[in-house]
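User: Hi! I'm working on a homework problem where we have to compare a predicted structure to a textbook description. Could you give me the structure for the chain below?
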Amino acid sequence: MEIEVVRLAGPHRAGLHELLVAEGWDHVAKELQENGLDVFTQYVALRGERVVGWLEGTLRYEAAVDIPRIPRPWAQVNFILCHPSMRRRGIGTALLRRFARDETSAGRRFVVLWPDRQDAYARTAFFTALGFRPVPGTELLGTDLPHVLTGPAH
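Assistant: Happy to help. Predicted structure tokens:
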């Protein structure tokens, strides 16, 4: 199975909308329709022409936001989603690695995320396998971006 991870573009929007609705992410699907999700960095995983995964991330380096022991500048994963029939096939890893590569090239050194509480064990296990660890004093998981690029694939 060949998966390609690319930046979200016009031709992928309908497929992403379909994935979001199928997964019950109606509020994000509505935002996609209304403003194109153009505020943050968006990636889609494609199997052929089909959108099978999505990641939204952002640079977080705001003066008002300070997380002790996290080196600035840092990046943040806002959302990551994989089609249920395509899980455990490396799509989430491919999305995170593309994001990490681009963010590292842009000078970011660290990435954080808030793990979803739905199916928390499986999600935390996935991120832990990629090197994410609890950030002391927060509900965040975080890791050095280079570790995402070189850690084991899952």
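For your comparison, note the following. DSSP finds five helices and seven strands in the chain. The CA atoms of residues 97 and 150 lie 9 Å apart. Good luck with the assignment!
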